[in-house]
Amino acid sequence: MTTTAERSIVTLERVWEARPGVLGWLTTVDHKRIGLLYFWTTLVFFALGGTEALLMRTQLATANEHVISPGGFNELLTMHGVTMIFFFIIPMTTGAFGNYLIPLMIGARDMAFPRLNALSYWLFLGSGLFMYSSFLVHQAPNAGWFDYVPLALRRYDGGLNIDFYALGLILNGVASTVGSINIVTTIFKLRAPGMSWNRMPLFCFAMLAAALSLIFALPALTMDCVFLELQRKAGFDFFSPPGGDPLLWQHLFWIFGHPEVYIIVLPAFGIATSIIPTFARRRMLAFPLVAMAELLVAFIGFGVWAHHMFATGISTTTLAFFAAASMAVVIPSTIQVFAWLFTVNLGTPLFRTPLLFIGGFIVFFVLGGLTGIMFAAIPFDQAATDTYFVVAHFHFIIFGAAVFPLFGGIYYWFPKVTGRLYDEQLGKVSFFVVFAGTLLTFFPMHIVGLLGMTRRVYTYDAGLGWDVYNLLETIGGFILAAGILLILANLVVSWRRNVPAGRDPFNGGTLEWTIPSPPPHYNFAVVPTVTSAYPNWDAADRAHDIEKLHHGEAVLADGHLTPTSTVNDALAGPIAEMPEESPWPIVVAVAVTAAFFMLLTTHALIAAAFLAITLLAVLAWHGDDREQVFSTEWLARPNGWWGTALFVATEATLFGTLIGSYVYLRFRNVHWPPEGIAKPAVLVPVLLTAALVVSSLPVQLAWRAGRSGRTRAAWRFLAAGFGIQLGYFVWQVHDWVDAIHDAPPSHSTYSSILTTMLGFGHAHVLLGLLIDAWLLVQLARRFTPYRLVGLQSVALYWWVVSAISVAVLLTQESAHL
Amino acid sequence: MTNGKTPNDRRRRALALCGASVFALVVAGCGGNQNAVAPASPQEHSITTLFWVMLGGATIGFALVVALLWLGYTRRARPGLPRDVGERGATRLVVGLGIALPVALLVALFVWSDVFVITSTAAPSKSSTSLAVNVVGHDWWWEVRYPGTPVVTANEIHIPVRTRVYLSGTTADVIHSFWIPELNRKIDLIPGQTGHIVLDADRVGVFRGQCSEFCGLQHAHMAVAVIVQSKPAFRRWLAANAAPATSGNPSAFLAAGCGDCHQIRGTAARGDVGPDLTHLELRSTLAALTLANTPANLARWIRHPQAEKPGSRMPDVRLGDAQWAAIDAYLRSLR
Questions:
Q1: pLDDT category, B32, cuts 50, 70, 90?
Q2: Which residues of chain A have pLDDT under 50?
Q3: How far is the C-alpha of A348 from the C-alpha of A360, rounded, in Å?
Q4: Residue A176, CB half-sphere, CA atoms under 13 Å: how many?
Q5: Contacts of A618 (CB under 8 A, 6+ apart)
C-alpha cells in the first residue's frame, strides 16, 4: 500500500521536475514560480513607488521647499500613481497572489494556459522596464497618472515623457489582459471535481470578478492611449477642439479608471474572506451574499465613471445618474463589511498578525468608503475634488483597503510558500507601526484638503494653515516606510530562522492547506474531491484522498496532467495535458518590448521587423502541439475555446470603445463629414461586409467536418473561407489607403476616427487570415485534437469579427444620416 | 494726462495702497482664506452644511463598525453575539445593516444633495445676476475681463459685496480649474467649452483660490484672489481700471520686446500671452499671487522670472542696467 503511494510520489516528482538554474526560471511555466517572479518584481516596483512618495513628502514637509524641481516633482507624482496601480497592486494581486493561489485553492496543477501565463509575466516585466527606462533619459511621464489632454499633447509636453506613458500602458494592458483571460479560464475549467460555484472559495470569486473587470475595462484605456499616440506622433486629431474634444480622453480614461478601483480592492476582499474564516475558526457568514456582492461590485463599477468628472460642466441630469450609480456601488461593500464583522463576532477569533491586518483593512476601508460616499453628493464633490481631501480618500482605499490585506495575505501564506513560520511578535509590532503610519500619513490630508490645499502642487505658501498637517503627513510617511521595512525584515528573519510550518499551521479551510508546504511542483498528489466550500475542514474527504493515493487512484502521473471539469457544477471532465517549460514566451515578450521601444522612437519599420520576429516565435511556440491534448473524450468547449471567447470579448469591447468614440465625436461636430470630404461609399463596403459574414460559414463547417473526422473536407472548407476573407481584406485595405490619401487623418477629426476604426477592423481580419493560413498548413500535415481546438476557436473568431465588421460598417455609413 | 496731481491720481494712489495691504491677506494672510468649510456665500453655506451633516452620519457609521470590531476582540474567547441570535439572526443583521439601512440613508442623501442642494451650485441663469466677469485660465495665471467695459486685469477679481456675479470661465491652453473655496464649487476650464458659476459673497474680504486641475510645471503657483468690496469701492476700482494707461514713456519696454506678450492699452504693446499691464500698479500681487507687488519684487521678477517661477512663460531677458531702470520706472507708473 505505502509502496504504491511512494511510487506515485516519485513518479510525480520526476514528471513535474523543474529545469534547474536560471534557465529553469526563464523558461518556467509553473504557476507557483511565475507567481513568485511576479511577487519579487512587483515588490521592487512597490519600493520604487514608495521612494517616489517619500521624496514628494520630503519636498512638501514644509512650505516653499526646494528639494526637488517642479518638473522633477511632476514626474514623481505621475510615476508614483502609475507604478502603484499598474506595476504594484494589479500585478501583485492578479499576478502574484492569483497565480500562486488560484490553482492551489481549486485543486489544479497549473493555470489553464501555462505558457500564456509566462508570457503575461514577461510582458509585464517588459512594460515595467519600458516605463522606468524613461528616467534614464530624464523624460519620465509627467502629466499625472490620468494624463489629461491637452496637457499631454505634444504642444504642451514635447518630449518622450507621454509616449513612454501611453505605449507603456498599452504594453502593460496586454500583459494584464492575457493574465486575466488565463485566470477566468482556469477558474471556469480547472476546478476540482465537486467544486461547484457554491463551493468555490470566495478568494476565487473575487479574483474572477477582478479578472473579468480587467478584460472589459482595459480596452478603453488601450484605445485612449492609441488615440493619444496617433495624435502625438501621426498628427491625427481626437482631442483638440473644434473637431475633437479633450473630454473624450477623460471619458475613456475613467470608463477604465473606475472599474480599476474595484479591480484593485476586489482581490483584497478575497484575501479578507480567506483570512477571516481561518482565524475566526468558522465559515463565512452569508457566503452566497458575499460571493454575489463581489461580482456585483465589479459589475456596478462600470457605471460610475463620470463621478470623476463632476466639475467638467456635464449636464446635471447626467451627473445625477452617475451619482446614483456611485451610491448603489456602496451596497455590495456594506454587505461584505457586515458579513466580515459578524463572522468575527460569531466565531472565536485568534487575533494573529494576518487578522490584525484585516482589522486594519476594515477600519480603513470603511473610513475611505464613507468619504467616498461624500463624493457621490455632487455639490460636495464639486468643492472637494482635486484637493487633498480626495487624496486622503483614495489613499485610505488604495493603501488602507487594498494593500493592508496584501500585507495580511503575505503573512498568512508565507508558511505555505516557504514552509517556515513567520515571527508572530515582530508581525504584531509591524502591524501597529504600519497602522499608525498610515493614519498619520493620510488622515491630516482630509483637513488640509478642506483648508483648500489642491492636489499635485510641488510646493505651497506658508500662512495658509497647511504647514503643520503637511509636516505630520511627512513624519507619518516615514513611520509607514519603517513599518513596511519591519514586515520585510520579519520575512527575511523568519526565512533564516527556519521554524518548520508544517502542512497547515492555521487550520485554514481551503485546499491549499491540504498539501505540503512549500507545495510540490505537481501541487496535488491526488485529484481532490470537494463537497463543501471549506474542504480542508472535511476530514472524511481528505482521508478518502489519502486512501486514493495509497491505491494509486486519481494520481495522473503519466505526464503533465490535470483534470478539467464542467463550468457550473464542476463535474469531472477529461484530463488535460499541460505543456512543459518553453523558451518562447520570453522570446515573444522581448521581441514585443523591443517593438514598443522602436515605436517610441518612431522607427516604424524596425518595429514591424520585431513584430515579424514575434510572429515567428509564436509559430515556434505552437510547433509543440501537446498542449490541451484530450486523452479521453471531446469536450463541447475546451480551454482553448474559452480562451478565444474571452479574447474576442475583450476585442469586441475595444470596438465598442471605437464606435462609442465615433458617435461621441460625431455629436460634437455640426458637419459630419466636414465640408470637402465625401461621404463614405455604400455599395462596395456593404457587399464586402456581406461576403465576410458569409465566409464565417465555411469556417464553421470546417470545424464540424474536423470534429467528425473528415480531414480533407475540413481543409477545403477552411480554404474556401480563407479565399473569401483574403479577397475582402485586399479590396478593403486598397480602399482604406485610397481614402487616407483623399482625406488625410491629420486634416479632420472625422478622418482620424474613421481611419482608426477601419484600420483596427482590417487588422483583425489580417490576424484571422494569419491563423487561417497557419491552420491550413498544419492541417495539410497532420490532424490532431489540438488542431481541432484551433478550428473551433477560429470559427468563433470569424463569427465575432463578422459581427464587428457589421457594426463598423453601420457606424461608417451613419455619416449619411 | 498731466503730470500734476489730480484727484483722480490721488484716488489711484489710495487704491494702490489698499492693494498692498490686501496682499498681506492674500499671501501671508490669516491662514483661513482658502478654507472650504468657512463659507462666505449662500452657495458655499449649503455645500458646507451638506458636508457637516455627512460628516456626522459618517462618524456614527464609523463608530458602529469600530464598535463591532472591538466587540469581536473583547469576546474573542466566546462564540456568538452577546444576545444569541444564531446564524440566521446574524444573516438578518447583515441584510439589515448592509442593505436596508444604507439604501434608506443613501436615497435620502441623494435626494437632498443631488436634487436640492445641487440647484444652488449649478450654473446660474444669467438674468438672475447683475454683473458679469469673464475669467480665462493661462499657463500659469488668470486673465480677468469685465464685459461691457475695457477693464482687463489679472489674478485679482474684484467684485461688489452681496451682488450675484455671473462668472464665465474658459481656457487659453490646457485644462485649469477655477475654485474659490469660500465662495462656491469649482469649475473646470476646458478647451472648447465655457463653464459658468455664480459668485455671491455675503461679506467684504479677500478670498483666495488656486488652480485645481493639474496644469503642468507651475500648477502650484497659479493662485487667484477674489477681492470683495463695498459697492462704491468696487465702482471706484472699476472706473480707475477703465481709464487709459498713464502717459509714461514705454520705449524701453517696447524695445525690450515686452509688448510681444503683454498689452498696455494706448501703446504699441498688444501681446496676449501674458497679463494686460495697463494698470499693473493697481494690483497687489505679481505672477499669480507668487509675489507681493512691491518695487523690489517687481524688479526681481522682471529680471529673473525663471528663478522666481521656474518654467513660467516669461523668459529671462538680458538688458543693461539703464534699460531695466527705465522699464522699472515705466511699469511703476502704470497706475
A1: low
A2: 1, 627-632
A3: 18
A4: 35
A5: A584, A588
For B211, the closest chain A residue by CA position comes to: A454
Assign A578 to helix, strand or coil: coil
DSSP assignment of B238-300, as one string? Answer: HHHHHSPPP----HHHHHTTGGGT-B-TTSS-B--SS---TTGGG-SEETTTTEE--HHHHHH
Closest-approach residue (CA) in chain B for A363? B66
**Mean of the pLDDT values across residues B269-291?**
94
Could you tell me if A584 and A623 are in contact, meaning their C-beta atoms sit under 8 angstroms apart? no
Phi-psi region of A281 (alpha: psi -120 to 50; beta: other; left: phi over 0): left
pLDDT for residue B30 is more than 50: no
Instruction: Indicate the range of A180-194, A547-561, B105-119, B192-206 predicted with least confidence.
Output: A547-561
**Residue A576 touches partner B, C-beta closer than 8 Å:** no
What pLDDT sits at residue A623?
76
Q: What is the C-alpha to C-alpha distance for residues B196 and B98, in angstroms, rounded to an integer?
A: 39
* Nearest CB to A337 within list B75, B91, B98: B98
Q: Distance (Å, rounded) from C-alpha A266 to C-alpha B178?
A: 35
Across A418-456, b (16+ Cβ under 10 Å) vs e yields bbbbbbeebbebbbebbbebbbbbbbbbbbbbbbbbbbb
Phi/psi of residue A693, nearest 5 degrees: -60, -45
Which of chain A's residues have a Cβ under 8 Å away from the Cβ of B195? 313
- Joined together, the cell numbers standing for residue B132 give 458679469
Q: Which of A338, A451, A469 to probe by mutation at the B interface, max B CB count within 10 Å?
A: A338
CB-CB contact of B77 with A348 (8 Å): yes
Question: Which residues in chain A are contacts of B58 at CB distance < 8 A?
Answer: 370-371, 373-374
3-state secondary structure of B303: helix
Residues 6 or more apart whose CB falls under 8 angstroms from that of A714 comprise A702, A703, A705, A706, A779, A783, A791
Question: Of A240, A249, A243, whose CA–CA distance to A220 is shortest?
Answer: A249
Residue A288 forms contact with B (CB below 8 Å): no
Of B61, B99, B216, the CB nearest to A335: B99
- For B178, which residue in chain A has the nearest alpha carbon? A311
Contact B288, B194 (CB under 8 A): no
CA distance, residue B323 to nearest chain A CA (Å): 31
Q: Angle at which helices A424-450 and A388-395 pack, to 10 degrees?
A: 160
Calculate how close chain A gets to B139, using CA atoms only, in Å. Answer: 10
Grid coordinates given for B277: 499691464
DSSP bridge pairs for B245: none
- What's the ipTM? 0.93
For residue A625, the SS3 value is coil
Query: ∠ at Cα A53 (A38, B287), nearest 5°?
Result: 140
Q: Do A345 and B72 touch (CB under 8 A)?
A: yes
A678 CB-contact burial (10 Å; exposed 0-12 / middle 13-18 / buried 19+)? exposed
Are A348 and B78 within 8 A, CB to CB? yes
Contact B163, B131 (CB under 8 A): yes
Query: At which residue does the C-alpha cell 461636430 appear?
Result: A669
- Reported pTM: 0.95
Tell whether the model's pLDDT for residue B25 goes beyond 90: no
The DSSP bridge pattern shows strands B156-160 and B223-229 to be parallel
Q: How confident is the model at residue B248 (pLDDT cuts 50, 70, 90)?
A: confident
pLDDT digits (tens, 9 = 90+) for A43-67: 999 999 999 999 999 999 999 999 9
How many whole angstroms separate alpha carbon A747 and alpha carbon A72? 35
DSSP-derived secondary structure for A315-384: -HHHHHHHHHHHHHTHHHHHHHHHHHHHHHHHS-----HHHHHHHHHHHHHHHHHHHHHHHHSHHHHHHH
Cβ of B76 and A459 within 8 Å? Answer: no
> Looking at residues B84-111, what average pLDDT do you find?
94
* Contacting residues of B for A317, CB less than 8 Å apart: none
